[in-house]
Design a protein that fits this description.
Elements (H helix, E strand, L loop, with lengths): L1 E4 L8 H5 L3 E6 L2 E10 L2 E6 L5 H11 L5 E4 L4 E4 L5 E5 L9 E3 H11 L5 E7 L2 E4 L3 H9 L4 E6 L7 H10 L9 E3 L1 H14 L1
Parallel strand pairs: 4-5, 8-12, 9-11
Antiparallel strand pairs: 1-2, 2-3, 3-4, 5-6, 7-11, 9-10
């Protein structure tokens, strides 16, 4: 079984797909679709196969770990987790773990967030707050002239995070506003290079 965070499949609602809230599972060459509609600290799940929902929720929570309540599409209760403590940090003290922002993704995030609250997963490395994911969402908040962003300490820490932070610092990406915006083609090339490294 393979779970993919799906930004491409048109079976999903455009907004949820472009905000990274859709996941496609490939099992025995068959695709199953899972879409999360986030409302505050709750998510409503539209799914193809009930037996895979728990695995997809686990993957979803790597990016949206602050969501603690899950409901079926018909608003009936599905599952709950302990609430995450969230707090606010100045954007300019958050160390990025990535170098680049995809301009197309940034435009979509700016369009669909529309002044909504975001919550960014962070961890602490050498007494610094490091963004694990959500760099585009932080950048979008910065473009709205926000100085602060909501964060939470994530339970999911990628195994290569220390290496990514080291590379970011070596290349002088010390703050979110120092990240470079790339075209879609340039960003895809960057991702291929990163996949070759890891």
């Amino acid at each position: 079984m393979k779970i993919i965070r799906d930004y491409e499949s048109t079976v999903y609602t455009t907004k949820n797909r472009l905000l990274g809230q859709c996941f496609t599972v490939i099992e025995n060459k068959i695709k199953y679709y899972f879409e999360f509609d986030i409302r505050g600290f709750e998510a409503y799940i539209k799914y193809d196969r009930l037996t895979l929902v728990d695995a997809v929720i686990d993957e979803f929570r790597k990016y949206f770990g602050y969501v603690s309540m899950f409901y079926n599409e018909n608003r009936t209760y599905y599952k709950a987790f302990d609430e995450k403590y969230t707090f606010r940090l100045p954007i300019n003290i958050i160390q990025p773990s990535k170098f680049f922002i995809n301009k197309e993704n940034l435009d979509n995030v700016c369009k669909y967030l529309e002044d909504k609250e975001v919550y960014i997963p962070v961890t602490i490395i050498n007494d610094e707050y490091v963004a694990i994911s959500g760099h585009t969402r932080i950048y979008a908040k910065m473009l709205e002239d926000n100085k602060m962003v909501n964060v939470y300490l994530s339970d999911y820490i990628p195994s290569n995070l220390d290496d990514l932070v080291y590379l970011a610092k070596e290349n002088n990406f010390l703050k979110i506003n120092q990240m470079e915006i790339l075209s879609n083609e340039e960003y895809e090339s960057y991702l291929e290079q990163m996949n070759d490294l890891y």
